[in-house]
Amino acid sequence: MRVAVLSSGGKDSAAAWWWARCKGWTVDCLVTVTITGDDSPMFQIPSTHLVERQAALADVPWVEVRTNGEVPDDLVALAEALRGRAIDGFVSGALRSDYQKSRLERMAEELGIVSWTPLWHQSGHEHLRGMIEHGFEIMITGVSAEGLTEAWLGRILTKESFEELAALASKHRFHVEGEGGEYETLVVGGPHMDQRLSVEGTVHWDGVRGHYAIH
What we know:
The protein is α/β, with parallel strands linked by helices. It has two domains: about 1-115, 3-Layer(aba) Sandwich (Rossmann fold); about 125-215, putative n-type atp pyrophosphatase, domain 2, CATH 3.90.1490.10. It contains six helices and nine strands, in the order E-H-E-H-E-H-E-H-E-H-E-H-E-E-E. It has a five-stranded parallel sheet with strand order 3-2-1-4-5. Helix 3 crosses helix 4. The termini are far apart.
C-alpha cells in the first residue's frame, strides 16, 4: 500500500503514521491542514507548521493545505491536494469523533481511495500510555481544561507525569487523551521518526488556558 498520512504533528497522527510504517506500507507524504482562521471543528491549530520539520527528519515529502477552517471548504481543499497523487488511501489519527471520521470517509469515497483510522475507539488511557511506553516523546503545547495549568506547557509526558495527568483527568472529569480539546500536543521524537526534533519555546498563559509558542 502507498498512503498519505494526515498529520498535525500531534500524538494521534504520530501513532497513525507509526501504524502505517509497522504495516510495511510506503508513506507517500505527510499532509498538514493549516488553519488560517481562528477555529476548526476538524483540525488542530497550534504547532502544525512543525510537521514540515518532522517530515524532513523522516525523509518524507510534506504537503501543506491552507484553509480558513470553515465547512465544507476545509475538506474541499484537502481533497484537491490528494487528488491525482499515486496513493491507495490516507491514514488519520481519528480516535473518537464520528463527525471527523465520517467526513474523511465521504471524501475518500469521492476520491476513489480508502480512509484508514487505526486508532478508532481505542481506550484513550491505554493508547496514550502505550505510546509513552514505546518511546514517543509527547510535548503538551496547549491546555484549556480545569486542572491543567501553565506548568504543563512545554512538558514532555513520561510514565510518571502520565499518571499525574490521569489523576487530574479523573478528578476534573476531562478526557485523559485530550480528545475533547482539553490539550494539544507535538511529538518531538519516537519510533516513527529517524531523528529527534529539538524545540524551544515560550509559555503564554491567561490564567485559564495557554499555549507553548515554539520559536
